[in-house]
Design brief:
This protein has three domains: about 200 residues, Rossmann fold (3-Layer(aba) Sandwich); about 160 residues, Rossmann fold (3-Layer(aba) Sandwich), CATH 3.40.50.12780; about 90 residues, GMP Synthetase, Chain A, domain 3. The protein is built from 13 helices and 26 strands. With about 475 residues, the chain is of the alpha/beta class. Strand 25, helix 12 and strand 26 form a beta-alpha-beta unit.
């Protein structure tokens, strides 16, 4: 097997002037991309990076894209060096490439890839050959969201990289130009980048809402993949400048990572002219269901895509009848059987070839999958049984908050209690909040109501409930 980086460099010979990396700051052609990747690879080789080296990257997105390809060229294993990843895996990382300050100390050798590094590339010999790689050689580690603990790494080998990117084109890249609003630290962002540059297409670097809107307008982007939080940021930007539907070419809006509220879906339809589509899956396996958003069933995430298998199973692991609630499991080609360099206790989600994401759900008679929240979000507080994710979805439709999320914590007596954290531009009457919640769950007692500057979310926009629980010793209303 040849190195996948060669598939990227090939386009410098075929379409040298075609755009390769596009952001609001720059446009880099394939000729420029190939030259930069080769020079960076040669410099990193000189600095001691070899095939099999594990290298974390902390750099601005455009530079991270170049570094990722240069590391692939050298046969090294790259990963996005977020603070959480660096804390959890510091001992597993050989090198850190960074152009920004960091708040934690690491044992890995640090290579500053700032302005001086970039200037030095002018004197580097760019005539370097890519390392030979086999199908089973690892090339990238992508980390799970980490909402319930430390992020867990999923290893991409050369074979799984090629297979997963090919399936991405089949399952969720329906129109060109395509843009993923999620960054290289996510599986969707990484796969989008890999597919586009291996196929000679432009990779659009995501930013904030206004930056993404500018790229959509300027480049006639026809389909996007995003999270609910990033979609809301984009819609906010479109509404702020009164973008008309004739100003955009968007035909498909796909949402993944968490559930969407009907109000955000309506705003998307008004601002972008598209009813969102759900994509459900995980970093570990990829997309397994796809379906158009249904405001009457906002937790229905579609039917199974080709190449995947999804089941809802009972407590003993047997497929449940249609309509029965159970644990979701699924599998596809290249489903891993363990996390990267994790202990045995971390691998309970992989069983007999299946991946168990920790979600509960129902398969209806039409084959639609309906998500009922995470198993660890299912709580029994004072006799009230419900799922925190369903409570969040309902609360976000109330005309009370800018944003909100529920969480569970232990009170002084050790009992499970429920709190609500919220953002609001206006004063909020606690009595009204409690009255509205009792209208949904009459037996539920809210024990903490916290006004916060922001709801803690990960890179996919999922609520990090453990961070909210840690706030319980702060101000309460």
């Amino acid at each position: 097997m040849t190195n996948p980086a060669q598939l990227v460099l090939h386009w410098a010979d075929v379409t040298p002037d075609a755009p390769a990396i596009v952001s609001t700051e720059l446009t880099m052609t394939y000729a420029e991309l190939a030259d930069s990747v080769r020079r960076i690879a040669a410099r990193l080789r000189k600095d001691g990076i070899r095939s099999g080296s594990v290298v974390a990257i902390r750099a601005r997105p455009e530079l991270e894209a170049l570094l990722l390809l240069a590391l692939l060229h050298e046969g090294a294993v790259s990963l996005h060096g977020s603070e959480a990843v660096m804390r959890a895996y510091a001992d597993e990382i050989d090198f850190l490439l960074g152009d920004r300050p960091r708040s934690i100390r690491v044992a890995a050798r640090t290579i500053d890839v700032g302005a001086e590094f970039m200037v030095s590339l002018g004197s580097v010999n760019a005539r370097v050959e890519a390392a030979e790689l086999g199908d089973s050689d690892p090339c990238r580690i992508v980390f799970s969201s980490g909402t319930t603990g430390s992020p867990k790494g999923v290893e991409f080998t050369v074979a799984s990289l090629l297979a997963r990117t090919a399936s991405a084109r089949t399952n969720w890249m329906p129109r060109d130009p395509f843009m993923c609003l999620l960054g290289l630290d996510t599986v969707s962002g990484f796969q989008t980048f890999a597919w586009t540059v291996m196929n000679g297409r432009p990779y659009f670097v995501p930013g904030d809402g206004p930056a993404n809107l500018a790229l959509l307008r300027e480049h006639g982007i026809r389909s996007i993949k995003t999270s609910p939080a990033r979609l809301e940021n984009l819609v906010d930007a479109a509404e702020a400048v009164s973008v008309g539907l004739g100003d955009l070419a968007v035909e498909v809006v796909e949402v993944a990572g968490s559930l969407l509220t009907p109000s955000v879906a309506r705003r998307c339809e008004s601002a972008l002219g598209c009813t969102p589509l759900y994509l459900y899956g995980s970093t570990e396996v990829g997309t397994v269901t796809r379906g158009i958003f249904d405001p009457s069933a906002p937790n229905a995430v579609g039917t199974v895509v080709d190449g995947s298998e999804v089941q809802v199973v009972d407590e003993v692991g047997q497929p449940a009848p249609a309509g029965d609630l159970g644990a979701i499991r699924y599998r596809a080609a290249f489903t891993p059987d363990r996390y990267w360099r994790a202990g045995p206790d971390a691998n309970n989600s992989f069983r007999d070839g299946w991946f168990y994401p920790g979600d509960l759900g129902v398969l209806d008679a039409d084959g639609r999958l309906l998500i009922s929240g995470r198993a660890d979000d299912l709580v029994n507080a004072g006799g009230a049984k419900f799922n925190l994710a369903e409570l969040d979805l309902w609360m976000r439709e109330l005309d009370l908050f800018t944003d909100c999320a529920s969480f569970q914590f232990r009170d002084a007596a050790g009992a499970t209690s429920i709190g609500i954290a919220f953002q609001s531009r206006h004063p909020v009457d606690p009595a009204i909040v409690l009255e509205r919640v009792r209208g949904l769950l009459p037996n539920l007692e809210i024990r903490a109501l916290l006004r916060v500057d922001g709801i803690p979310r990960n890179h996919l926009g999922k609520v990090v409930r453990t961070s909210l629980a840690e706030l319980i010793n702060g101000d309460k209303q």
